[in-house]
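Database export, one record per block. Field names are fixed; values are copied verbatim from the stored entry.
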Amino acid sequence: MVAEGAFGMGFVVEREQRTMLLHRVNFVGRPSSGNTVTWDYEGRFWLVDRPEDGSPAHRRSVRCPVCEKTLNFTVHSVEATSGRRTRRWVWAACGLAVAVLTPFALLVTGFGTIQFTVVLVVANLAFLFAYLSAYIAARETGFAGHGVSWPIIPKHVAALPQRDPHTGRIEYSREPIPFKRERPADTI
């Protein structure tokens, strides 16, 4: 079974998952165009068997090809990955609805300073919750551990391939990826 995302370039999620185990090689982002920074990753291919649909998540251990650290990831099935992604999109929609509808509470409570402050805080927190939920949903890969599913720049990444809807070409989720070592990762 293969599941792909519906928005833009979706992750290719497969039962026998071909992925890249990547290690961030720079501690500080390298300046690139505009006000952005680039994070360089080095790694190699890793073939992971996802659990059957309906089965609980499995723990998988792999040794990082760069730092030789043993990494433990929780790997979810294709169906569970799709469900996790859907739930997070629903959370994002609910947060956005609260952020949009909260200011209408001022029509009921009045426009006092305290009411306005409370509505402003609730609306901003709801919008932040919606943004983070959407960000995590868009990056959901079915792998958990070592900050992979958090909205951060993690030290280790299990990057899934993405299919470009216009060209059909498969690419990996982190750019650039220097392939200094292209031998398979050592599954423990």
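Remark 1: The chain has one domain: 2-187.
Remark 2: Helices lie at 78-101, 105-109, 113-138.
End of record.
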